[in-house]
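Regression test attached.
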Amino acid sequence: MEFDKEVDATGLNCPLPILRCKKGLSEIDATQVLKVISTDPGSVKDFNAFCVQTGHELLQLDSNDTTFTFYIKKRSS
Amino acid sequence: MAKKLALIASKGSLDWAYPPFILASTAVALDYEVHIFFTFYGLTLLKKDLSELKVSPLGNPAMPMPVPMPNFMQMLPGMENIATMMMKQKIADKGVASVEDLRTACLESGVKLTACQMTVDLFDFKPSDLIDGIEYGGAATFFEFAGESDVNLFI
């Protein structure tokens, strides 16, 4: 999947992946896509909750046993 | 309009330093406006130097210990330092943020921090011991924000 910026949050625990994601989103333009890589199993639920509450769109989640990769489209305004 | 979160931070140990800063930094990421009121032992969390924060197994039967330890052992000299050292090691090993980092994240993202003026006077804290960028106020200051908040928590 194409993206405009990547944030590596591997090895970090709650709430750091969300904070890094928020920072990453502030550095891209509206409707651009941020890729976030996390190893925190709790981040799957957290990133869903983050997107529902903030209006950013979770386009895709790729997960394997240890790594979770989120593609988030920044909201338009 | 942004949602609002009001927290009272009343505890000053290493373990209890986490909940207010984790909730505040996350709420800001969720576009909340956040205000933390630090009172009594919570005031310690506003000190410039946070290296003195400690955790004690004493009176905390739920604290996971590497080996079961009778209560009287936990009051031996040095036990608090050992427990604190072990906790800090675990925090680093598991990729959990330090209290300093979470506090910095809060400050940089505009969380309002208010020190309870009465406690500052009561414990003879010096404003020069506390970090810059905080405000001083009393219970009425807290309610000014808390009264119109969506979430209020006492920690």
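Expected vs. actual: identical. Strands of chain B lie at 4-9, 33-38, 112-116, 135-137, 151-154.
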